[in-house]
Amino acid sequence: MKLKSKITAICFGIVSFASTAQTKTELKLWYDKPATIWNEALPLGNGRLGAMVFGDPAVERLQLNEETIWAGSPNSNAHTKSIEALPKVRQLVFEGKFDEAQALATQDIMSQTNDGMPYQTFGSAYISFPGHQKYTNYYRDLDIENATAKVKYTVNGVEFTREILTSFSDQVIVVKLSASQPGQITANVFMNSPIDKTVPSTEGNQIILSGVGTNFENVKGKVKFQGRIEAKNKGGEVSASNGILIINKADEVTLYISIATNFKNYQDITEDEVAKSKSYLEKALPKSFDAIKKAHVAYYQKFFNRVALDLGSNDAIKKPTNERIRDFKNQFDPQLASLYFQFGRYLLISSSQPGGQPANLQGIWNDMVTPPWDSKYTTNINAEMNYWPAEVTNLSEMHEPFIQMAKELSVTGAVTAKTMYNANGWVLHHNTDIWRVTAPVDSAASGMWPTGGAWVSQDLWERYLYTGDINYLKEIYPIIKGSADFFLDFMITDPNTGYLVVVPSSSPENTHAGGTGKSTIASGTTMDNQLVFDLFSNVIKASKLVAPDENYTKKLSDALAKMPPMKIGKHSQLQEWQDDWDNPKDNHRHVSHLYGLFPSNQISPIKTPELFEGAKQSLIYRTDESTGWSMGWKVNLWARLLDGNHAYKLIQDQLHLVTADQKKGGGTYPNMLDAHQPFQIDGNFGCTAGIAEMLMQSQEDAIHLLPALPTVWKDGSIKGLVTRGGFVIDMTWKNNKVSTLKVYSKLGGNCRLKLENTLKADKGIVLKKAKGKNPNPLFYDVEVKKPIISKEAKLPKVKLPKYNEYDVEMKAGQTYSFSAN
């Protein structure tokens, strides 16, 4: 049935009147009007199921997702045509014929079949309430302290309340409808989907919507899905007919919504979606809303409550969230920054649960059949950015779906590496999907980038540094080694420079000045060199710990010795390419060559001051305002540059309210989701990680406390941040200096603390001035090659505060307390 006609038949017009205000300081997004567009609706999720709550009194819309509803079916987009083309493309690059090289790569190396499948919406559930077009005292919220949404309003003196949650523990969406007087709940409930050939039906007291993911780019859609809704009522009557639940004069109603698919894994879609959808519902129905909510909140808070951030509060909290976002740049609202930080953690818990799929480009929230960029996994920044907060903000379990995807990509990527490049190991280009395709997609301008496996491997290694889990390292070692194996085979010597390089490749999505200035394809880009440097270095370290092989690690060391150093160009910038092509007026959203500053640790104010200043100059040239995710990355970069005020300015730019009439420019939508535009979730995760980096860093040989604290956050506290080495930090500060500090050690070992003021330890704790190299093996200095610096470059000297460094030998499972001197 057509969506528009059914809504017209059941729904009514809408008029809004007076509102109430939320004045408490809880972690809530709240509003005094219903959502009229998707970017105003509020996201709920349990990792597998997602719901966007609109909160319209007359017609509630719950836009629904299930994480495995994708177009297509298991497939590979690898091909052999590339083997003959590869040496020709390389030769054209070496000859400076970049346009020709890029055209040939697009024609013969890019996927010859499909560019990956889109993530797709299930559809929506609608709840229509006759006579609720005119209402007063309207209020809706998303409570991220307990992962629930609420809608309240008054019609004819009766207060109506809706409570909605996506249950972690029971794997259903539950909606409680109640009223301040008995017999007032009268409504119709139905489901619809923009996916063709979905079939609504009725089975007893349940309404059902069944369908199949679409065909896409000649891949047949085979993901079968089914959604079911049943109502439990107190008082009144409930019946089901023609795919509609009819509720008449009930005192209270609870709706139970289940969705399931036939997806088992990326190779297998033989699950019984009908049996699964029935099972989820049958197990949940005997439970009351309150019982489901209690278990749901307990599960959620087990993760969410690990971290607390207090930056202070003021009267700004009395305004609805959209107004606070609108005013953030011009009104000091520290609690909104805390809320935004925690909202990122909420989103990660809600979109990435152990045993499920990783958060995609939109997390799990998508209302389209073909969303922007297909809502896939873009691995030249966006997929990795989604997991930047996972370890540092104490959500390590949420990292597991990404790690599982890496394992699967190492399997499909091995086929692609051998088929397309006759190389060992495994390869990943700039995009993948639920079927784990790994061939290059789209055009060569964005797709000819074979370095995704190196970035994924860096993420896996970072998790080891936080957890120190040697069994985990044994588990991921074959994956990161497999990526290294690919580059040992794929990299060749550039005849123009004599360096060992990745070619053909690009600095993601950015054109350079070579040739006609219209191509991205290049040889030995800075980002590729940084990624492979990390990969080879990390595999060498890992090999020594879990699989000693001197011959193999020597191959990696020899390859590292042949790779290019980083370069400082004539504009005093860190060069993005091997040639000094950078344009100071280039404000491209990608800042790929700054990977070495963040998330890597190759660029340091102490160890590599020239590169530090060059990276800063590059970031200044790029400017601040950009797409949402780009600003999220820049918060982290300015934090690593130890400039808290500039990082805060980027948060102000990011918390720029994007409304329906703003067609360009990034920022934040009224529902606090990141605006690229359009919606991408990575900017939320990037900013959450960036705020953590402003408060604490551990990428070098010490735990740096308040490394980039903006002056406006004069007093505050943070509890629960995790450092590399497995230390958990609880800290308060006053007048921009550390006041009290508690460190819980998960693993034991030396804890090196770095801060501007001096510390004293509680009785019984031995606090020593730090000397020499940190003996804790989970902290390490990176030794990069000395940069090549243009004679025209003018680099200022790095100016740093005076820091104090302390060592404390800690035992696993114990907490150590300190205070300012």
From TrEMBL:
Residues 288-695 form the Glycosyl hydrolase family 95 catalytic domain. Keywords: Signal. One of its GO terms (biological process) is carbohydrate metabolic process. Residues 29-266 form the Glycosyl hydrolase family 95 N-terminal domain. Residues 1-21 form the signal peptide. One of its GO terms (molecular function) is alpha-L-fucosidase activity. It comes from the Bacteria. It holds the Pfam family Glyco_hyd_65N_2. Residues 697-763 form the Alpha fucosidase A-like C-terminal domain. The keyword NADP does not apply. This is Alpha-L-fucosidase 2.
